Amino acid sequence: TDERIPAGAALTARQITEIDAGHIWHPYGAFPPSTPSLVVESASGTRLRLADGRELVDGMGSWWAAIHGYRHPVLDDAARAQLDRMSHVMFGGLTHEPAARLAQLLTDVTPDGLEQVFFADSGSVSVEVAMKMAIQYWRSKGRPGKHRLLTWRGGYHGDTMGPMSVCDPDGGMHSMWSDVLPRQIFAPTPPRDYDPDYVLNLELLLSAQADETAAVIVEPLVQGAGGMRFHDPRYLQALRDACDRHGVLLIFDEIATGFGRTGRMFAADHADVRPDIMCVGKALTGGYMTLAATLCTAELGRAISAGEAGGLMHGPTFMANPLACAVGAASLELLVSRDWETEVADLEDGLTAGLAPAWDLPNVVDVRVLGGIGVIELDAPVDMVSATDAAVAAGGWLRPFRTLIYAMPPYISTPDDLATVTGAMVAAAASQAQGGSPG
Ligand code: PMP
């Protein structure tokens, strides 16, 4: 719109749509957008309320983040109380209670031995920091040649340059960048079931590349945006053993899997494995604020600090934002005070039952559920517009991508909510069977 908006005046839904389509990038978006974004006016519990009056049951948890649902009174209060103290202050030379409280809680719930917490402002940055920690560690040890990362194919670790370099290099969403990214080392995608030959080959690769490899980085148990694939937790033990034998650090990216989503507090807990470095984000603040963290062992903290730089060379402006940390601490306290294990087990049951009818569709090649994650995999890429329309018509909010229709609803979802979400998933899948054009 060319009209100037008077300061403070409310925008109409039409104005929002026009300004949005004219000026605002959306994730992986284009100008003009292929389809306008829905205007969401408010959200509470599991519901998104649209400007046109429709109400949708949220299947996405705002991309894994909103585990307690929207407008939880405890989180709302934590944000308000912190607002009355300070919303932000620089973290160089200053500290505050929200950061201390959240750091203590994080070191308590993460695997034993992760002691040092770096507060980052997004998941991608926390992965950048993890990569830098690993490289700086080996520099401090006089091994600057160990600067590459080893990962398995099919992964996704974020959209900035470092994380993109460890995303799936072949056909993944960042493969167009492969010629300008740091060159990393790739192992095949782990099969879903345990295969000793896979482990053997992984170890051979690791031992051959150990002189150049700073760390192995993987998404434990679930490869998320790279394909929503699950694998046997024994691969994580095998990685830990191989890393120890060959002098390579182990990084777990728990940004999607952390805080109960897989049925354990962290995916690492399924294998009883402690990584040297761990990234968390998304659900860290219950989806309220942009905050992530990279944790590492005390040994790494000491070694990095003894190196030539005298410390870890990273320090964002909004590091440990007090509002975000206050809500993060409240979210974590809320999580551990509730019977989240039963809630996630109920999600698993509800998703499994609700998705069963998908098996009968001719275009469905797999249906899989783990904890609070449900996935329908199709035989061809979805047309995102018609698949989303079908889900919305069935009352659910979903964001299908490639061949995947998937959900990770808030833990507070009721059986009725889950029936709506799984119904929307099956409807979205069915819409593609009825001649939805691949997009
Ligand atoms: N790692 C994983 C496993 C993720 O799922 C994501 C987010 N999709 C990221 C990293 C990047 O996090 P962010 O989008 O907050 O930068």
Automatic annotation (TrEMBL):
<dbReference type="GO" id="GO:0004015">
    <property type="term" value="F:adenosylmethionine-8-amino-7-oxononanoate transaminase activity"/>
</dbReference>
<comment type="pathway">
    <text>Cofactor biosynthesis; biotin biosynthesis; 7,8-diaminononanoate from 8-amino-7-oxononanoate (SAM route): step 1/1.</text>
</comment>
<dbReference type="InterPro" id="IPR015422">
    <property type="entry name" value="PyrdxlP-dep_Trfase_small"/>
</dbReference>
<keyword id="KW-0963">Cytoplasm</keyword>
<feature type="site" description="Participates in the substrate recognition with KAPA and in a stacking interaction with the adenine ring of SAM">
    <location>
        <position position="28"/>
    </location>
</feature>
<keyword id="KW-0093">Biotin biosynthesis</keyword>
<keyword id="KW-0663">Pyridoxal phosphate</keyword>
<dbReference type="GO" id="GO:0005737">
    <property type="term" value="C:cytoplasm"/>
</dbReference>
<feature type="binding site">
    <location>
        <position position="63"/>
    </location>
    <ligand>
        <name>substrate</name>
    </ligand>
</feature>
<keyword id="KW-0032">Aminotransferase</keyword>
<dbReference type="GO" id="GO:0030170">
    <property type="term" value="F:pyridoxal phosphate binding"/>
</dbReference>
<dbReference type="InterPro" id="IPR015424">
    <property type="entry name" value="PyrdxlP-dep_Trfase"/>
</dbReference>
<feature type="binding site">
    <location>
        <position position="156"/>
    </location>
    <ligand>
        <name>substrate</name>
    </ligand>
</feature>
<feature type="binding site">
    <location>
        <begin position="123"/>
        <end position="124"/>
    </location>
    <ligand>
        <name>pyridoxal 5'-phosphate</name>
    </ligand>
</feature>
<feature type="binding site">
    <location>
        <position position="399"/>
    </location>
    <ligand>
        <name>substrate</name>
    </ligand>
</feature>
<comment type="subunit">
    <text>Homodimer.</text>
</comment>
<comment type="function">
    <text>Catalyzes the transfer of the alpha-amino group from S-adenosyl-L-methionine (SAM) to 7-keto-8-aminopelargonic acid (KAPA) to form 7,8-diaminopelargonic acid (DAPA). It is the only aminotransferase known to utilize SAM as an amino donor.</text>
</comment>
<feature type="binding site">
    <location>
        <begin position="316"/>
        <end position="317"/>
    </location>
    <ligand>
        <name>pyridoxal 5'-phosphate</name>
    </ligand>
</feature>
<dbReference type="InterPro" id="IPR015421">
    <property type="entry name" value="PyrdxlP-dep_Trfase_major"/>
</dbReference>
<dbReference type="InterPro" id="IPR005814">
    <property type="entry name" value="Aminotrans_3"/>
</dbReference>
<protein>
    <recommendedName>
        <fullName>Adenosylmethionine-8-amino-7-oxononanoate aminotransferase</fullName>
        <ecNumber>2.6.1.62</ecNumber>
    </recommendedName>
</protein>
<feature type="binding site">
    <location>
        <position position="282"/>
    </location>
    <ligand>
        <name>substrate</name>
    </ligand>
</feature>
<feature type="binding site">
    <location>
        <position position="315"/>
    </location>
    <ligand>
        <name>substrate</name>
    </ligand>
</feature>
<feature type="modified residue" description="N6-(pyridoxal phosphate)lysine">
    <location>
        <position position="282"/>
    </location>
</feature>
<dbReference type="InterPro" id="IPR049704">
    <property type="entry name" value="Aminotrans_3_PPA_site"/>
</dbReference>
<dbReference type="InterPro" id="IPR005815">
    <property type="entry name" value="BioA"/>
</dbReference>
<comment type="similarity">
    <text>Belongs to the class-III pyridoxal-phosphate-dependent aminotransferase family. BioA subfamily.</text>
</comment>
<dbReference type="GO" id="GO:0009102">
    <property type="term" value="P:biotin biosynthetic process"/>
</dbReference>
<keyword id="KW-0949">S-adenosyl-L-methionine</keyword>
<feature type="binding site">
    <location>
        <position position="253"/>
    </location>
    <ligand>
        <name>pyridoxal 5'-phosphate</name>
    </ligand>
</feature>
<dbReference type="Pfam" id="PF00202">
    <property type="entry name" value="Aminotran_3"/>
</dbReference>
<keyword id="KW-0808">Transferase</keyword>
